[in-house]
């Protein structure tokens, strides 16, 4: 889970439309939120990912649901309130179910930085406090099959890419050709690209990469050799703002 920035309320949700849709839901329970002009801006705001688990909602579009942070049947007046809506995969939405954030608050990544409440250990999320723990449990964010194993796969890919980068660095030090330099910087950029907000499971990738001593040593060597570029530093800075401790 990473911090998200909410997009401006879509024009579709004018005051009149909100009143109309809310009344319709209250009268017959219609899925008034299931509209492209609501769903698409939500997807943009989360980079096409579930706001909670960071799985892709482009590849898994059939699972994309409009999630009501405050449960719609308890807070019917907020059923199309823009600040109450999040893009979620079906599995996170089902896991959260009827949970009442009014009595047991969870992390809303549009409102707070998840890093303030979550930490990461052995590919599992751990709560720093009661809010973090409740979030992990309510959303089933340590489900082995759908998330912990996936985080492990992501971590293994990071370690594999780092090993390739180290081999390329050693090759460059033996013969400092432009081709070898470009290949070295390319793999480092690839690793950092997977730590950016648009990448799926970005929090996991950033956390694994920036806690890997070999990767950190590689960065130090690139700096010492004068190979570290500003665009890499910008990507590293962004990754540092995502990584969990």
Layout of strands and helices, then pairs:
Blueprint: H1 15-28, H2 36-45, E1 65-68, E2 85-88, H3 90-96, E3 118-121, E4 124-127, H4 130-138, H5 144-174, H6 178-193, H7 202-210, H8 213-224, H9 230-240
Antiparallel strand pairs: 1-2, 3-4
Helix pairs in contact: 5-6, 5-7, 5-8, 6-9
Commentary on this structure:
With 245 residues, this protein is mostly helical. The chain has two domains: 15-110; 144-240. The chain has nine helices and four strands. It has a two-stranded antiparallel ribbon with strand order 1-2. A two-stranded antiparallel ribbon has the order 3-4. Strand 3 and strand 4 form a beta hairpin. Helix 5 packs across helix 7 (202-210). The protein is elongated. The model has no long low-confidence stretch (mean pLDDT 95).
Supply database-style keywords.
2 domains, elongated, 7% strand, mainly alpha, 245 residues, 49% helix, two-stranded antiparallel sheet
The H/E string reads HHEEHEEHHHHHH
Shape summary: elongated
**Unreliable stretches:** none
Supply the number of structural domains: 2
Quote the average pLDDT: 95
Q: Helical element count? A: 9
Q: First CA to last CA: what distance?
A: 13 Å
Query: How does the helix and strand content classify structurally?
Result: mainly alpha
Largest sheet strand order: 1-2
DSSP helix fraction: 40-55%
Task: Summarize it.
The chain is mainly alpha-helical and 245 residues long.
């Amino acid at each position: 889970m990473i911090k998200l920035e909410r997009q401006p309320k879509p024009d579709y949700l004018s005051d009149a439309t909100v009143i109309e849709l809310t009344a319709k839901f209250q009268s017959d329970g219609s899925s008034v939120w299931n509209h492209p002009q609501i769903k698409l801006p939500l997807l943009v705001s989360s980079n096409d990912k579930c706001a909670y688990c960071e799985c892709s909602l482009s590849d898994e579009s059939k699972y994309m649901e409009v999630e009501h942070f405050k449960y719609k049947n308890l807070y019917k007046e907020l059923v199309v309130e823009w600040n109450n809506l999040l893009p979620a995969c079906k599995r996170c939405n089902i896991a959260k179910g009827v949970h009442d954030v009014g009595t047991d608050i969870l992390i809303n990544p549009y409102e707070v930085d998840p890093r303030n409440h979550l930490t990461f250990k052995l590919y599992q999320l751990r709560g720093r406090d009661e809010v973090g723990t409740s979030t992990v449990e309510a959303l089933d964010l340590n489900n082995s099959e759908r998330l912990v194993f996936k985080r492990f796969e992501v971590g293994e890919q990071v370690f594999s890419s780092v090993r390739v980068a180290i081999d390329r660095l050693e090759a460059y030090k033996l013969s400092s050709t432009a081709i070898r330099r470009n290949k070295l910087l390319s793999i480092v950029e690839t690793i950092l690209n997977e730590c950016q907000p648009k990448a799926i499971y970005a929090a996991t990738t950033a956390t694994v990469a920036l806690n890997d001593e070999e990767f950190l040593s590689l960065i130090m060597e690139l700096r010492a050799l004068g190979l570290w570029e500003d665009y890499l530093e910008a990507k590293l800075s962004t990754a540092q703002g995502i990584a969990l401790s």
